[in-house]
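User: Fold this, then the next.

Assistant: Folding the first:
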Amino acid sequence: MENWWIVLLFAVGALGFFVIGLSLTIMIKGHYIDGEISTNKNMQKLGIRCAVQETRDDDGTVSCGDVGCTGNCAGCDVEHEKAKGNA
């Protein structure tokens, strides 16, 4: 057997192994992993917050609640546009 066939078979086998490995959560639990801070109850219980929210709380520049941040980094206004009144 030629070397490129061996490499191709190994690559296809590795790809199949990784696809099955990554989908075990969906197959066993029946849902995707909830990695969003604002909707994951376990993260909220542990006190994990959005990086933007933590930075604003540490700086004391503006409260995340004033700009509509709910712990979801995608929903945070990073440039403080709402707080400046430029929204």
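Now the next one, as you asked:
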Amino acid sequence: MDFLLGVDGGGTGCRAAIATASGEIVGRGKSGPANIRTDLTGARDNIVAAARQAAAAAGLDPGVIDRLRAILGLAGANVGDYGRQLENILPFAKSRVVSDALIALEGAVGDGGDGAIAIVGTGTAYLIRRGGVEHPLGGWGFQVGDQGAGSRVGREALEEALLAYDRVRPASPLSDAILASFGNDPNAIVEFSLGAKPGDFGNFAPKVLEYAAKGDVIAGEILARAVAAIEASLSALGVDQDTPLSLLGGLSQFYAENLSEPFRTLIRRPRTDALGGAVSMAVRTFGIME
């Protein structure tokens, strides 16, 4: 029997699902980050590791990896030729790399349906489709984009900790906790930042959410800026009552609860998640190709 592979990869982790030609998922796996713009080789290794886990979970021979036909929706695939580079070094029989936003939209509304998605996790990406026409927004990466993403929220927490250390602004329990996690040594924060990847910064986002829930002033200000950034992007995307909006990613629940009322009323539950979208796209894509 021939099998298909769907992959959903971002800055924090990678998920894979092996399915039959009809789309029935028979095994799942997960591994580390798979942002191909940030770390192409590392992403390739994590994708293969997740696929092998999925094969093992399905009770399949490890050799099935070489026969898989795969759709991979990955962060970073919307920029440059990183997707093509990855396709050339993957071990699968057939590979097609698309953006993580595209598989998320597929999962949310199905093939060809109108709708919009916002991925709000380690990074951010947006995609809207009306009348079969797709328009992406954002997804430019941590260095020059990803406003409101976990990576940016975490980085701001480190920045605020240093500002509090220098007494540029009053300290708060959050800034104290961040500094304490680095041994109360501001130099350690600087050294960390020099080699940190987006997912490393994103690891501090849950702490910001935790302290904001306790009324921390700095945490609240960071998240208020993040909410404003997400709403600005949704406005630019042009979402409205005729275009259902699905939020996906690790921060989706937070934003679903904290966006202003005009945006909250547009949010709809996706039909399935991005990984399901990748599997669905694999069934359609490779069914047509054969």
